[in-house]
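Protocol step 4 of 5: obtain the predicted structure for the target chain.
Materials: sequence only (see below). No template structures provided, no constraints applied. The aim of this step is simply to have a reference model before the mutagenesis design in step 5. Sequence pasted as it appears in the construct record:
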Amino acid sequence: MGSSYLFTTERLGFRTWQNFDLDDFAAINADPEVMHFFQKPYTREETQAMMDRMQRLYEERGHCYFAVDLLETKELIGTIGLGWKTFESDFTPCVDIGWRIGKKWWNQGLTSEGAKACLDFAQQLKIKEVYSYATGTNLASVQVMKKIGMNFCYEFDYSELKDYPQLRQCTLYKVVL
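Step 4 output (C-alpha coordinates):
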Protein backbone atom coordinates (compact mmCIF):
# COMPACT_ATOMS: atom_id res chain seq x y z
CA MET A 1 0.00 0.00 0.00
CA GLY A 2 2.85 2.40 0.91
CA SER A 3 3.98 2.76 -2.69
CA SER A 4 0.60 4.23 -3.64
CA TYR A 5 1.22 7.37 -1.55
CA LEU A 6 1.87 10.55 -3.51
CA PHE A 7 3.87 11.84 -0.55
CA THR A 8 4.24 11.14 3.16
CA THR A 9 5.18 12.83 6.40
CA GLU A 10 6.52 11.16 9.51
CA ARG A 11 3.02 9.97 10.45
CA LEU A 12 0.79 10.51 7.40
CA GLY A 13 0.35 9.14 3.88
CA PHE A 14 -1.39 11.20 1.16
CA ARG A 15 -3.16 9.52 -1.74
CA THR A 16 -6.05 9.80 -4.15
CA TRP A 17 -9.49 8.54 -3.18
CA GLN A 18 -10.47 4.88 -3.54
CA ASN A 19 -13.88 3.20 -3.37
CA PHE A 20 -12.92 1.51 -0.09
CA ASP A 21 -12.63 4.95 1.58
CA LEU A 22 -16.37 5.62 1.44
CA ASP A 23 -17.40 4.00 4.75
CA ASP A 24 -14.68 5.66 6.82
CA PHE A 25 -14.98 9.08 5.16
CA ALA A 26 -18.79 8.99 5.31
CA ALA A 27 -18.55 8.34 9.07
CA ILE A 28 -16.25 11.37 9.52
CA ASN A 29 -18.54 13.57 7.35
CA ALA A 30 -21.63 12.42 9.26
CA ASP A 31 -20.21 13.45 12.66
CA PRO A 32 -21.99 16.63 13.82
CA GLU A 33 -18.92 17.74 15.82
CA VAL A 34 -16.57 17.38 12.85
CA MET A 35 -19.09 19.22 10.65
CA HIS A 36 -19.92 21.91 13.22
CA PHE A 37 -18.57 24.71 10.98
CA PHE A 38 -20.30 23.45 7.84
CA GLN A 39 -23.93 23.80 6.76
CA LYS A 40 -24.72 20.26 7.92
CA PRO A 41 -23.23 16.78 8.20
CA TYR A 42 -22.91 15.00 4.85
CA THR A 43 -24.89 11.99 3.77
CA ARG A 44 -23.13 8.97 2.32
CA GLU A 45 -24.16 10.17 -1.17
CA GLU A 46 -22.72 13.65 -0.55
CA THR A 47 -19.48 12.05 0.66
CA GLN A 48 -19.30 9.92 -2.50
CA ALA A 49 -19.93 13.03 -4.63
CA MET A 50 -17.12 14.87 -2.82
CA MET A 51 -14.70 11.96 -3.36
CA ASP A 52 -15.65 11.92 -7.06
CA ARG A 53 -15.09 15.70 -7.32
CA MET A 54 -11.68 15.36 -5.67
CA GLN A 55 -10.69 12.56 -8.05
CA ARG A 56 -11.64 14.75 -11.04
CA LEU A 57 -9.79 17.72 -9.58
CA TYR A 58 -6.66 15.58 -9.15
CA GLU A 59 -6.88 14.43 -12.76
CA GLU A 60 -7.34 18.02 -14.01
CA ARG A 61 -4.93 19.94 -11.75
CA GLY A 62 -2.60 17.42 -10.10
CA HIS A 63 -3.91 18.16 -6.60
CA CYS A 64 -7.05 17.77 -4.49
CA TYR A 65 -8.15 17.37 -0.90
CA PHE A 66 -6.27 14.08 -0.51
CA ALA A 67 -7.27 10.95 1.37
CA VAL A 68 -4.93 10.86 4.38
CA ASP A 69 -3.92 7.68 6.20
CA LEU A 70 -2.21 7.32 9.55
CA LEU A 71 0.86 5.35 8.41
CA GLU A 72 1.14 3.37 11.64
CA THR A 73 -2.35 1.82 11.39
CA LYS A 74 -3.29 2.53 7.74
CA GLU A 75 -6.54 4.10 9.02
CA LEU A 76 -8.11 6.90 6.97
CA ILE A 77 -8.08 9.93 9.29
CA GLY A 78 -9.83 12.27 6.85
CA THR A 79 -8.73 14.74 4.21
CA ILE A 80 -6.02 17.39 3.97
CA GLY A 81 -5.10 18.97 0.68
CA LEU A 82 -5.31 21.58 -2.01
CA GLY A 83 -8.56 22.62 -3.63
CA TRP A 84 -9.56 25.00 -6.42
CA LYS A 85 -12.04 27.74 -5.53
CA THR A 86 -13.98 29.69 -8.13
CA PHE A 87 -16.84 31.25 -6.15
CA GLU A 88 -17.35 35.01 -6.52
CA SER A 89 -14.79 36.94 -4.43
CA ASP A 90 -11.74 39.23 -4.56
CA PHE A 91 -9.26 36.35 -4.21
CA THR A 92 -10.75 33.71 -6.55
CA PRO A 93 -10.08 31.75 -8.61
CA CYS A 94 -7.38 30.37 -6.32
CA VAL A 95 -5.77 27.29 -4.86
CA ASP A 96 -6.84 26.80 -1.27
CA ILE A 97 -5.71 24.44 1.44
CA GLY A 98 -8.25 22.68 3.62
CA TRP A 99 -8.70 19.81 6.01
CA ARG A 100 -11.27 17.69 7.79
CA ILE A 101 -10.17 14.92 10.10
CA GLY A 102 -12.05 12.61 12.42
CA LYS A 103 -12.42 13.57 16.11
CA LYS A 104 -10.28 10.64 17.20
CA TRP A 105 -7.25 12.36 15.63
CA TRP A 106 -7.80 15.93 16.85
CA ASN A 107 -5.21 17.77 18.96
CA GLN A 108 -2.27 15.59 17.93
CA GLY A 109 -0.65 18.01 15.48
CA LEU A 110 -1.65 15.84 12.53
CA THR A 111 -3.51 18.57 10.65
CA SER A 112 -0.56 20.99 10.86
CA GLU A 113 1.90 18.25 9.91
CA GLY A 114 -0.22 17.29 6.92
CA ALA A 115 -0.98 20.85 5.85
CA LYS A 116 2.75 21.75 5.86
CA ALA A 117 3.41 18.76 3.59
CA CYS A 118 0.63 19.93 1.26
CA LEU A 119 2.26 23.37 1.02
CA ASP A 120 5.54 21.65 0.08
CA PHE A 121 3.62 19.66 -2.54
CA ALA A 122 2.06 22.92 -3.85
CA GLN A 123 5.56 24.35 -4.22
CA GLN A 124 6.62 21.31 -6.27
CA LEU A 125 3.62 21.98 -8.52
CA LYS A 126 4.91 25.56 -8.98
CA ILE A 127 1.85 27.03 -7.27
CA LYS A 128 2.80 30.54 -6.16
CA GLU A 129 0.22 31.28 -3.48
CA VAL A 130 -2.25 29.31 -1.42
CA TYR A 131 -5.28 30.64 0.45
CA SER A 132 -7.27 29.21 3.32
CA TYR A 133 -10.42 30.39 5.00
CA ALA A 134 -12.69 29.32 7.80
CA THR A 135 -15.66 30.61 9.68
CA GLY A 136 -14.25 33.16 12.11
CA THR A 137 -15.33 31.11 15.12
CA ASN A 138 -13.45 28.02 13.88
CA LEU A 139 -10.45 28.78 16.06
CA ALA A 140 -8.84 25.36 15.60
CA SER A 141 -8.60 25.82 11.83
CA VAL A 142 -7.40 29.42 12.16
CA GLN A 143 -4.72 28.13 14.55
CA VAL A 144 -3.55 25.61 11.92
CA MET A 145 -3.36 28.39 9.31
CA LYS A 146 -1.10 30.41 11.61
CA LYS A 147 0.99 27.37 12.56
CA ILE A 148 1.80 26.53 8.92
CA GLY A 149 2.99 30.08 8.21
CA MET A 150 -0.07 31.63 6.61
CA ASN A 151 -0.81 35.31 7.11
CA PHE A 152 -4.14 36.96 7.90
CA CYS A 153 -5.61 38.87 4.95
CA TYR A 154 -9.08 40.01 5.92
CA GLU A 155 -12.55 38.86 6.88
CA PHE A 156 -15.19 38.37 4.21
CA ASP A 157 -18.77 37.24 3.76
CA TYR A 158 -18.65 33.88 2.01
CA SER A 159 -21.29 34.03 -0.73
CA GLU A 160 -21.99 30.28 -0.63
CA LEU A 161 -22.99 30.59 3.05
CA LYS A 162 -25.42 33.49 2.64
CA ASP A 163 -28.24 31.36 4.08
CA TYR A 164 -26.14 30.47 7.15
CA PRO A 165 -25.59 33.76 9.04
CA GLN A 166 -23.71 32.02 11.87
CA LEU A 167 -21.12 30.68 9.38
CA ARG A 168 -21.03 33.40 6.73
CA GLN A 169 -18.32 35.62 8.24
CA CYS A 170 -15.02 33.98 7.26
CA THR A 171 -11.39 34.72 7.99
CA LEU A 172 -9.00 34.59 5.03
CA TYR A 173 -5.34 33.59 5.25
CA LYS A 174 -2.71 33.36 2.55
CA VAL A 175 0.85 32.14 2.09
CA VAL A 176 3.19 32.98 -0.78
CA LEU A 177 5.40 30.03 -1.72
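Step 4 remarks: The longest strand covers residues 75-85. The chain is about 30% helix and 30% strand.
Proceed to step 5.
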